Amino acid sequence: MSGSNRLSGLKARPKDTTVEEVRRVDDVGEARGFLDRTPRKKPGRKPSPRTWQLHPKVFPEVGEAIAAEAERLGITQGQLIERLWEKYTSE
């Protein structure tokens, strides 16, 4: 290929990540119409408005207890729930 390569002079440079520089870049972005991208909602399933069923994430202590027991047994949380369901339906 003949001719000069116009891209040969480009080099990768590390970005400045100081607090002041990040704030300056955010201010410029907001001034040009870019919106804040940080998540606003709390993650996790919310109670059903129809039946008020709850997911374990609604109660953090329940989710933590399930995770701890599954880890103690060396199985996944899904496997633990399957075992519990099996016991529940057999009685």
Automatic annotation (TrEMBL):
Residues 13-38 have a biased composition (Basic and acidic residues). Residues 1-53 are annotated as: Disordered. This is Chromosome partitioning protein ParB. Residues 39-48 have a biased composition (Basic residues).
